[in-house]
């Protein structure tokens, strides 16, 4: 498999505009939403986003939450450096 250059990554994500995505973050959380935009620094904006957290990871944002939880967060900007995995979804986000 060939390595992606920054330009090809941006082009690929641009082709996914308004499509449902699932992004896994460095702390294990998953954010699902529709791709709204991406900038030249690979920051990703999702709309209608939902955050899913599994297990017992404790971060400043998750203190006091149940061990596994889901919450609606609306529009969110994800720094590109925090995205571990980006997946295109075939079905709508509401599942």
Automatic annotation (TrEMBL):
<dbReference type="GO" id="GO:0031417">
    <property type="term" value="C:NatC complex"/>
</dbReference>
<dbReference type="InterPro" id="IPR034110">
    <property type="entry name" value="LSMD1_Sm"/>
</dbReference>
<dbReference type="InterPro" id="IPR047575">
    <property type="entry name" value="Sm"/>
</dbReference>
<feature type="domain" description="Sm">
    <location>
        <begin position="8"/>
        <end position="92"/>
    </location>
</feature>
<protein>
    <recommendedName>
        <fullName>Sm domain-containing protein</fullName>
    </recommendedName>
</protein>
<dbReference type="InterPro" id="IPR010920">
    <property type="entry name" value="LSM_dom_sf"/>
</dbReference>
<dbReference type="GO" id="GO:0003723">
    <property type="term" value="F:RNA binding"/>
</dbReference>
<dbReference type="InterPro" id="IPR001163">
    <property type="entry name" value="Sm_dom_euk/arc"/>
</dbReference>
<dbReference type="InterPro" id="IPR050914">
    <property type="entry name" value="snRNP_SmB/NAA38-like"/>
</dbReference>
<dbReference type="Pfam" id="PF01423">
    <property type="entry name" value="LSM"/>
</dbReference>
């Amino acid at each position: 498999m060939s390595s992606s250059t920054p330009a090809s990554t941006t082009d690929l994500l641009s082709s996914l505009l308004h499509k449902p995505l699932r992004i896994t973050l460095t702390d294990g959380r998953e954010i699902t939403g529709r791709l709204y935009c991406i900038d030249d620094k690979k920051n990703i904006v999702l709309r209608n986003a939902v955050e899913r957290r599994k297990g017992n990871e404790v971060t400043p944002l998750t203190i006091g939450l149940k061990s596994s939880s889901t919450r609606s967060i609306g529009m969110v900007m994800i720094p590109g450096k925090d995205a571990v995995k980006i997946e295109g979804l075939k079905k709508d986000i509401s599942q």
